[in-house]
Amino acid sequence: MENTSQITILRIYISSTDKSENQLLFETLVFKAKSMGLSGATVLKGILGFGASSVIHSYKFWEVTDKVPVVVEIIDEEQKIMSFYEAIKPILETMRYGCLAITEKAGLLLYKPGKIK
Hints:
single chain, alpha+beta, Alpha-Beta Plaits, 23% helix
């Protein structure tokens, strides 16, 4: 990506316990984004939220399993984001529980790769 270029952010709202086959869905999405050469992905863990089901999920330290909202953000050029979305769309459409995927256009101010040790 070029600095000062236009980028697209793909945000996928899911649950921390959602799975694709036997792997956590957020891991599947990040590894797929990396394998497709996208510029970056981040998983954000929520502490409270609800979706289309209107069931509120929150973080409580005494629960055995954390079922909390998770947002997977993936950033790159629009064409690459849309190709990635088309590749993962079948996974999202077959999920047992709901999800939400949105895109947002943004201006890239700085993209500086770090050094690998």
